Amino acid sequence: MSNMLNVTMTKSRFGRLPNHRACLKGLGLRKINQTVCVLNTPEIRGMINKVAYMLKVEEV
Question: What share of the chain is helix, strand, coil (3-state, %, to 5)?
Fold first, then answer.
C-alpha cells in the first residue's frame, strides 16, 4: 500500500454541509482543481470518504 495520496478537489465547496467544508479545510484544499499530497492514514482516509463525491484520489 502506498504511503502518500494525491487528492484533487473537483467540485466547489460552496453550498455544502459545514462538516464537509471542514474536511476539505483539514485536507488543505481551497480551490477547484487544487491538488495536495497527504499521508495515507486512517484519519485522512475518513475525511476523504466523507467528501469523496467532490474529490479525485490517486496513490503516489
Answer: 35, 25, 35
Q: Which CATH number is 37's domain given?
A: 3.30.1390.20
| Cβ(9)–Cβ(32) below 8 Å | yes
For residue 1, pLDDT over 70 is answered with no
Calpha distance 19→12 (Å, rounded): 14
- Domain assignment of residue 22, given as a range: 4-59
In whole angstroms, what separates CA 37 from the centre of its chain? Answer: 10
Cα–chain center distance at 60: 15
Domain count for the chain: 1
**Residue range 4-48, pLDDT digits in tens:** 999 999 999 999 999 999 999 999 999 999 999 999 999 999 999
